[in-house]
Amino acid sequence: MTSFPTADREASGFKRDERGWLAVISATLLLVLLPFSSYIASVPFIKAEWNLNNTLAAVVFSAYLAGYALSSVILIPMTDRISPQRVMAVGVTVLAVGNLLFPLLAGGFWTGALLRFIAGVGHVGAYIAGVQLVSLRFTGGYRGTAVGIFVSAGYAGTTLSYIFMGMLLKHTPDWRIAYLITAGVGALGVLPTLLPAFRRNPPLPEAPKNIPKGRGRLSLEPLKNKALALVNIAYALHTAELYLARLWLPLLLGAALIHSGRDPLESAAIAAALSGFMFMTGIAGVFLGGVLSDRIGRSWGAAFIFSISGVCSFIAGWLVGVPPIFLILLGFIYGFMTAADSAVYSTAVIELSPKDRIGSTQAVQAFIGFSVGAIAPVVAGCLLDVTTPGAGWGLAFGFNGMLAVVGVSALLGLRRLPEASRMANGRR
What we know:
The chain has 428 residues and is mostly helical. It is built from 16 helices and no strands. Helix 2 (16-32) runs parallel beside helix 7 and helix 10 (226-259) packs antiparallel against helix 14.
């Protein structure tokens, strides 16, 4: 892939037109991802309506991540040949349609999983192509910060739906109406992609006539690169930790509220809204994680963040029987830390990738990351189904903590490789 001129960008940082462009593309991602957590907030009602156990409810959730993983190996390599703006525009549209159809058509496990899968396919184009656009637009010492802002906007979208749904569930007669309202607001994210300014900015250079054979199709060469392999392992375990927490922390909090004497329906609504505020701290977390990685290096910054989130995982599941305030306080730290290293991996994989294989490298990262990420919430659901409630929560979140241990080990191994000097202007 060709890249943008860097001479004056590195010296000047964020120019006014660049700030405006970044704000628009970030707002697009925020809106279109707004319904992401609507399913999670609705799980207590969907489980009862569709007669699902914890494992099947987790499979419907993870169908979204499976759609992301499987489609990534097709869609993302296309950005090595096709303008990323086009890929992002298509992804945003598919994502919005999938989210709108879920509350209208989903009537059980199979239709629910299928529609979640379709939405996950759209998420790939919306997010990964957007990361690529931002990373190419901003270079030098400001790249991690810019990618952090964009990814933070995505986290804002995925967390605000907890709060929206928590409030709407109290004032609507059915979870479908609350879900549809959230999806309708999210569909407004399609509008900026229809504007000529979206297609013009940033001004990608004309594709060279001598495009190497194979560009636009998936290349497995990134699998042979040890540095990229370690980044992908850490990213996969980060993704697994993140989505296990995203699905099960609100339900853990709901169980804690029920244990304290609250009504189950009231507990579900309160837990959804509180979880939204907890995970919303990740918006600042992603941005600050990107800034931190610019300062101390990608591998060291991500390892520090991952260590703290792992400690939170080991503790969280055992708090269901204590006063909920302790879980709530931990949840705010947990929400911040599970998100804070997200932009670091997206930035690092582009810095380590061959310049004509960025799309394929991102595709491999996304496939591995979201495949593992789709499995982890289901494993947690199985642990909850086959054990007693008290022990089940502890084991489910303890499993999440073990993922962090392996992830930190991979990051420390990455830091020792010579190739790591290509990250963060030599800060590794």
